[in-house]
Design brief:
By secondary structure, the protein is α/β, with parallel strands linked by helices. The protein folds into 2 domains: 72 residues, Arc Repressor Mutant, subunit A (Orthogonal Bundle); 195 residues, Rossmann fold. The protein starts with a helix and ends with a strand. This is Methyltransferase type 12.
Length: 343
Amino acid sequence: MTVDPEMTVELEWENAMSSISPRETAADLAAVATLLEMADRLGIVPLLERGEPVTSAELAVAADVPEEGMDGFLATLVAAALVVPTGVKEFRVAEDFADRIHDSGYLTWSLRANQPYVQNPAAFLRDPAAAGAQFRRNGREVAVSSRWIGSQGFYPAATEAILAARPKHIVDLGAGAAGLLIDLLGRLPESTGVALDMSAGACQEAARAARDAGVGERLTVVERPIQSIADDPGPVAGADVIHAGFVFHDIVLEGDVFDRVLRQCREALRPGGIMAITDAVPYASAERERRFSALFTYLHAGFMNVTLPPEEDWLARFRQAGFEQAECVPHRFPGGRLFIATK
């Protein structure tokens, strides 16, 4: 029996939506997203995400704030059902914390990471080039919110595909805060990885997160744009898997560079290696996808000068780069697709 990937994703989405309380409101989502962003700004989300009991004193040290101040913040998180007490001044996250992180990612990405665009639409409509030079997104905010979305929106499919390849060396292009790569290295204790990103803030966050997760010695962080691979493929050399998450669309208009990067990646892969590109198609029409996909497509086209290629164009680029085969798997992330090409 053949399983339709689209139907599988639709069923997963319906199951996920059925778990949401009918009393959940926009006010609930806004409050949770705001509190979690505050926790992220305090630098305590990684400690909470471990799922183990942690004391207010430990969190206060991590945040470099007075313990009494942290006590007040934790009392608020308890009231909001984001953490639960496990002892005297000891807490652990609620069972649905991972779901809350994922849901909040959409709000923080849309309204916080893209705030320069949301606040200045008229400037972009009048003169996109000038506005783009003046109003820029914060790389760290983009990286963190993308990781939160990806935790359930697109990392699971990519993780499954990468683990199935049993890689010894993984390269993630446009790794952001390296959430996917850090998780993979935790599951593959004998493997090494390279996280490449052009944002200094994202690279700093990736290095910190890797140290906190105990994989810092096996992860190399490289601060470079993906376009640099076209002329210097050093960071991808000898990879069993090369992953790229939502970065290839940034160079789609640089046709020659786009194709050269793909070819360099194919050449750098070990025999039988795979390239897995997580990206998006424009204006996905399925009911579960259409609204966020519309926003995602418009933000990229109107504010970032990025034209998202349709699915058939992605597959054609892989063939032109010399990959033997390529396939497309839909993500839970609205409009997201995982393209897997084999050397």
